Amino acid sequence: MSPGLEVVRAGALTTVQDEGRAGWAHLGVPRAGALDGPARRLANRLVGNAPDAAVLETTLTGCAVRVTGTRPVLAVVGGAGCRVTVDGRPAPWGAPVRVPGGAVLEAGPAVHGLRGYLAFAGGLVPEPVLGSRSADLLSGLGPPVLREGDVLPLGRPGGAPCADTVPWPGVPAELVLPLHAGPRDDWFTEAALRTLTTAAYRVSERSNRIGLRMEGPSLARAREGELPSEGMVLGAVQVPPDGLPVVFLNDHPTTGGYPVVGVVAETALAGAAQAVPGTPVRFVRA
Amino acid sequence: MSGIRVLEAGPRALLVELASGDDAEAFHAELLRRREAGELPAVREIVPGARTVLLDGVEDRTLAGRLRSWTVPPLSREAGEAVEIPVVYDGPDLADVADAWGVAVDEVSRIHARTEFRVAFCGFAPGFGYLTGLPGHLHVPRRATPRTRVPAGALALAGPYTGVYPRPSPGGWQLIGRMPEPGTLWDPAREPAALLGPGARVRFVPAGVHA
């Protein structure tokens, strides 16, 4: 039996993610890919995969998978901190774990952070779409969201892991987002721009892979009317008519008609991926 | 070309804003020509919009200054082979569009089918192209109340644009017809995946009528 994973507990929202599908935005295809890129790369390193191998991304509640076949599979659970077990027995978090054939690897609910990453030696190898195995929840490209009973194929393990312990970043109590102004900051009042970089925002529970939505003071526009649809970048802070900023994450639409007041530095987006609803957010000038 | 504004969209993207949609299409065509000729520094994405072209993944900081000084030839709408889309003009908003245009209902299809369209940009869903070509007096507003479900293949109008829905979705555009086989609009296993990519010339052919 070829190596694979059978989904025993799918969790709230578990998807297959790799580096995403860059280069197709002009056709309306979002980039997708793991929201916490550094966590995905670290997890892959720990099981000897190329950094761009596909992993599982969990949301808040973790997931559980059974190794099909008879051979053991090297796996690691990283990203959001959680309890890890193999057939119910405690196993280390953030470090390689040997999961015997037939055994169940479980990532428990996140105790800090939001999104867990499960990497397996050989990587997950569902059929790629436009060069990527990432699930894109905006347009539905790539492998579907995991459901109990699904079976996912694993690739052939590559080289030996290049590390067996690495430092994982902690999850800060407050999310600080460095912001580059523009391209449409001139659509907002001076007062609104001051508010954006001084007010206390919180992560809304309506956040998802498309955008990190904010709760807090709304931003007043200096001009009315519609913005003709224009291209959107990762990290763009779009302000819809309710005035509440949305930070675009990997599944964001490629074009949009609401003004972008600023762009969050890409290096801060891994932290945004791990911010649970209610986390205080501060935008600071980049 | 006058009135080029180059705006920064973060540290690695430039949003080039043009004076009109026509200028944006011409600028996009020029970008593709220069990329093809190896005259453009590496960029990850070139994303046209209604009045803009976004260059994402720009490593060369000097590009912004150079873009402003480009000489851009006007768009040649006749260049290249047109993609022909067979359609049936029987949409539920045909009468409303005829009213807005001030013509008889069966005249809508004739006017639409003899218009040369061009994909200005994509968005909304993979394979959904915003097609320009209808003159200003034939632009129609969106429906006051969007439909909760528009079927795949619906041929629709809104503002300056014509589009064909690649898959079922909610939508507020005016529906004037349908493409009987919408599956060809988007096929990620095909190269190119989108039948209607930016810059493509398009003609709608009433089904059963051969050009």
UniProtKB/TrEMBL annotation, chain A:
Cross-referenced Gene3D superfamilies: Cyclophilin-like
Record-linked InterPro entries: CT_A_B, Cyclophilin-like_dom_sf, PxpC
Keyword ATP-binding included in the entry's annotation: yes
Domain Carboxyltransferase intervals: 26-286
Signal peptide annotation: none
Keywords of the record: ATP-binding, Hydrolase, Nucleotide-binding
Record carries keyword Repeat: no
PANTHER family for the chain: 5-OXOPROLINASE SUBUNIT C (PTHR43309)
NCBIfam families per record: urea_amlyse_rel (TIGR00724)
Name this protein carries in UniProt: Biotin-dependent carboxyltransferase family protein
From TrEMBL, chain B:
PANTHER family: 5-OXOPROLINASE SUBUNIT B
Protein name as it appears in the record: Allophanate hydrolase subunit 1
Organism superkingdom: Bacteria
One Pfam family of this chain: CT_C_D
Keyword field: ATP-binding, Hydrolase, Nucleotide-binding
Organism lineage string: Bacteria, Bacillati, Actinomycetota, Actinomycetes, Kitasatosporales
Keyword match rRNA-binding: no
Keyword Flavoprotein carried by entry: no
Residue intervals of the Carboxyltransferase domain: 4-196
Chain segments annotated as transmembrane: none
Record-level Gene Ontology MF annotations: hydrolase activity
